[in-house]
Each structure stands twice: as C-alpha cells, then as structure tokens.
Amino acid sequence: MEKRPSFRHVILIASIALAVRAVFLPLVLHIPLAGDERYYWRISCPDKMGIEYYAIVTQAPLWGMVLWWLRSSSSLLQTPIAARALSALIGALTPLLVYLLATGVFDRRTGLIAGILYSLFPEHIGFSHYLWAEILLSFLAVLAACLFFKFVESPRSARWLYWSAIAGGFALITKEYTLLLFVGFLGTFPAVRHYLSVKKLIIACCLFILPATLYSVAISCAFQRIVFISKGIEHTMAYSEGLVSLGKADNNEFRLRTIWRSIHRRPVNKTVRFFDEQVCNLWTPNSYPIVRLIHAPGYPRGFRDFTYGRTTWASFVLAWMTALSSIAVITVGLTGLCLGDSGPFRNFSFIALGGITLSGFIVWEMSRYRLPFMFILIIWAAYVLTHLRGVVTALSHRGRVALLCVLLLLYAHVVSSRVHTLGYISAPNRIT
Fold first, then answer.
1. Is residue 259 part of a domain?
2. Residue 103 and residue 150: Cα distance in Å, rounded?
3. d(Cα 236, Cα 374) in Å, to the nearest integer?
C-alpha cells in the first residue's frame, strides 16, 4: 500500500475544492448576515473589539480574531464578502488535509477518494461561504488529526504529537467541543504506549490547554470575572434546561449550580426524549446552510432569519440531493467504521463520534456541531469504496454486523423523524 502523497493528487483535489467554492461565492454577495454571523462580524470591527464583556465571552475567540485581523489589514477588506472569501479559501484547503490524513492512515487510493468526497460534500461547501467558525474549526481539527496520526505512524519522535497538541489547542479556542477530539486522540494511546512516556503526555496536554489558558487568564483579568474560553457551552446548557434568564447572571457558581441541579433532577423519560431530539438535530439530513445558499438569489428582498415555508422547487430538489448525499456518506461511513480494519484510527473514530453524540444528554445540539467530525465518516466511506473486498469479508464477524445494524437503525430513526423538514429553511423544527 502506497502511503506517500502524490503531488498530482494534491493538485487535483485543490483544483476541485477551489473551483466548486468559487462557483458558489457570487451567490452570497447579497445574503445578509444571520445568526452567529452577525456576532462574529460585529466583534471583529477594529474600532469595537473588546469593549463589551458579554459580547466578548459569547463565543470562543479565534474566528473573531481572524476576522479582526482581516478587517484591520486593509480598508478594501471591510465588507462581508471578503470574509466569506477567506472562509471559502480555508474550506478549500481542508480537503487537502483530509487527503493527507487518509493517505497516512490507509493508503493513497483511499486518500484520493476521501479528498474528492470532502471537496464535493455539499454541506461543507455550504458552510464554506458563511462567517461561522465551523469551517476554521474543521480545518484545525483535521490538521490536528493529521499531525497526531503522523505521530502514531512514527511514535519514536514526539514532535508530531506536540504539533498536534498545539493545533488542537487553537481549535479549542475556536469551539470548545474540540475537547471531544482530544479525548478521541487519548483513546489511541494504547497503540503507542511503549513509546509514550508520562513526560511526553504531560507536555502534550499542557500544549493543548495553553492557548485556552492564556486567553482565559487575560480575559478574566480584564473583566475581573472568571471565564474559561467563553460562555457558549454554558449558555447552551442553560437554554436546553429552559434557564435562559441565567445567561447574564454574574454569580458563576450560582449559575452552574442551578444548571447542574436542573439536569440532575430531570426525569428519566424527559431525559430520553431530550436526548432523542438532540441526536436528531445533530445528525439530521437537512442542512440550513445549503438550503440558504441554494436559495440565495431570492434573499435580497424576502429573506428573514429562520423563515417558515418551502423554498422554490429548484431549491427543494437541491435540498433533497444534499440530504441524500449526507445520508449516503453517513451510511457508508458507518459501514466502513464497523467493518473496517481495527487500529488507532478506528478507536479514535468511535470515541470522537460517540462523544459528540452523547453530549446531547446535556447540551442543545445543532447540525453544524457535526461538521468538524464529518471528515471521519468521509474517510471511512472512502475506505469502503477502495477496500470493498475486505469489507465484504468482515460480514462474517457477527459482532461487527450487529453493531452496524444497530447504528443504521438509529440513523434510520433520525432520518425518518427529520425527513419532513427537507426543502424548508426552518420548519417545523429550527434546523441550524
């Protein structure tokens, strides 16, 4: 198996990724900022950066800082389209990292298919044209995974581990749930335990937490209130418990104690219903960003955030095509995950995907939370396409087949519960 990247493959994947995103970029010229886009655009204004406590701590800081740097660098870059172009460029670079990761973990053929699939994945294309932080987070998450599995391949040298921890640390200050990826990395350590000393592990953990610690100390000292990265996860937990009024409470201890008491006292049947709803929100085949993107020409006049009602028939058809692509990737990806080769990447995949799914017990999930984790399923889908004989042979393992059947049945439940939302921007459930 050839595990060295091919320059021709890199050029091919980069060309596809850039071309597809460039085609859609003109469509967003007149799309108004929506949701978190407005927050990131407002916080990135060079004249207003850092003046309001609640504005600063609403979200993790890195994407706002990147936009602030962009807007500060030139007066020509003061429009949202410049920031959208930067997001599209970052989105176009991510498939190259997916190619390098899949090539290193499996082989060059799998890497090529994974890179092309990621380049053409409609949901990632849709997100690439907006000012949400998930595109930067996806880039950093795949970069961290790429560096980490380079260390797994050559564990005698810890430099790849340290660089991976640094990349993961910057991902952590982009969105806090990057912590689940780091937990996934920890799950692969048994494969390299003979080369990993306690000292190396401690250094890696310190490097991972360093950017968040430095930022948190600085922001806590500036406002004389204890803040760790942001209040984003805390606000999400409060919202999930119907405790929105706690959002600006000054007493951190009181706020957290109230939230955890509410979760602890939640009846079992309510917990099960809540978890089911959040899992369906997370893995829904519908995609608000892509529906919004394909309906872009009608936005200057009639768009309102989270409007109800169907889009045009063309947008409706494209929304179904997008949903089917998502269903195909997740279904085939789960097949590869369950029937594919055992190893560190498989352990990492189960822990990372399981972590983001199980977090639905305590936080309000949104479909964009899965985007930084989709490279895992895309790589496993590519594995199935390039190792079909091995996958068929693995059907003789009853335990693996049983696990696959359970996961596919659960995903079928998700699809059936959200299929009525396809073709809507947001109806009857708010899909973000």
1. no
2. 11
3. 22
CA–centroid distance for 90 within its chain: 14
Instruction: Note the pLDDT of residue 236.
Output: 63
Q: What is the pLDDT of residue 301?
A: 37
Flag whether 72 is in a domain: yes
Query: Which position has the token pair 């190396």?
Result: 200
Q: Which pLDDT does position 367 carry in this prediction?
A: 82
Distance CA 340, CA 170 (A): 31
| Cα–Cα distances in angstroms (integers) from residue 310 to residues 125, 307, 427, 432, in the given order | 22, 9, 8, 16
* Rounded average pLDDT per 10-residue block, the chain, 432 residues: 85 95 81 79 67 61 88 81 92 96 94 96 88 93 95 85 94 88 84 76 92 86 72 60 52 57 68 83 80 53 38 64 89 96 90 90 79 95 95 92 96 89 53 38
Q: Convert 294-338 into a string of H (helix), E (strand) and C (coil).
A: HCHHHHHHHCCCCCCCECCHHHHHHHHHHHHHHHHHHHHHHHHHH
Return d(Cα 198, Cα 150) in angstroms, integer.
Answer: 19
Look up the domain containing 205 and give its range: 7-230+266-421
- Within 13 A of 66's CA, how many CA atoms are on the CB side? 20
Paired tokens of 216: 């948190």
What the block records as the tokens of 98 is 């997916």
What pLDDT sits at residue 302? 36
Q: How many CA atoms lie within 13 A of 119 on its CB side?
A: 25
For residue 194 the two structure tokens come to 């003979």
Amino acid at 224: Q
For the chain, the domain total comes to 1
Tokens of 258: 């109230």
SS3 136: helix
Do the domain assignments include residue 256? no
Rounded to 5 degrees, φ, ψ at 396 are -80, -15
pLDDT value at residue 308: 36
Tokens 């899965």, residue? 370
Instruction: Report pLDDT for 377.
Output: 97
Q: How far is residue 41's CA from residue 71's CA, in Å, rounded to a whole number?
A: 10
SS3 128: coil
Q: What is the CA radius of gyration of the chain?
A: 21
- Residue written as token pair 């003046």: 51
Only one residue has tokens 């800082």, namely: 65
Distances (CA, A) of 94 to 119, 136, 363: 8, 9, 27
Asked whether residue 249 is domain-assigned, the answer is: no
Q: Does a cis peptide bond (omega within 30 degrees of 0) precede residue 428? A: yes
pLDDT of 23 reads 87
The span from the CA of 97 to the CA of 46, in Å, is 31
Kindly report whether the peptide bond that precedes residue 289 is cis, defined as omega within 30 degrees of 0: no
pLDDT of residue 157: 80
